[in-house]
UniProtKB/TrEMBL annotation:
Sequence similarity: Belongs to the NAD(P)-dependent epimerase/dehydratase family.
Regions crossing the membrane: none
Superkingdom of this protein's organism: Bacteria
Claim: NAD is one of the keywords in the record: yes
Source species of the chain: Alsobacter ponti
Name this polypeptide is given: NAD(P)-dependent oxidoreductase
Domain NAD-dependent epimerase/dehydratase: 3-162
Stored InterPro entries: Epimerase_deHydtase, NAD(P)-bd_dom_sf
UniProtKB keywords: NAD, Oxidoreductase
Amino acid sequence: MKILITGGAGHVGRKLREQFAGQFETIRVFDMVAATDLRSNEESVVGDIASLEQVERAMRGMDACIHLAAEANETSWERILPANIVGTWNVYEAAFRQGAKRIVFGSSNHAVGFYPRTQVIDHTALARPDSRYGLSKAWGEDVGQLYADKYGVRSMHIRIGNAADVPGSARALAIWVSARDLAQLVRIGLEHPEIHNTIVYGVSRNKACWYDNSEAYRLGYKPLDKAEDYTDEAMAAEAGQKRDPIEQQFQGGPFCAIEYVGPARP
């Protein structure tokens, strides 16, 4: 299989490339900066995700795409629009035009961040974005639905939790995902025959998890790691930090508290 990884020079992209070393015929890395330390089956293409022409050129000859390129934090609409909205549309359109039949979309827990922490949600939960960033991820899931239903480009949307090397907060203990568990989910998205426009949660086998990830388990996901192995480190990192009560109430954490003036504000 030949795969394109948009944002492949970034934090999550580099982790996946390490996990996938030698496992695919070709891994083409598309990013705004050149990828370093390329393996024998990897190639680097520098370009702008907001340019359909450049994305389509990078997609040429690929069987599938792992779409990670994005503005990864809450910021102004002017920054979200080209990378997360236009860029995601470009990836799907380029895949359709170039005959790539499968996309694994790096969605986010922030697409559903305004669910309370007291509620367990599954893959059928409607979007409740907690930010402009979360809204862009929810929109990307809908783009995937359109292209699956109308154009035959199938998607797995992974609502990634916290992909740090180790969980660094109490919240991260609920939503952390290890590199090898995330890679396992991505491979399911690339290869499983039942994928259409499928939503799963990018979390490891965490005891405190807020997500019912039964859809991922049904597809064969068997996470190997769990956040509670790092509880001491996470709580040490959390010690002394003052948390906004809105951040503590909702699953999206600090993204919910940004600019919040809603009814739950004390």
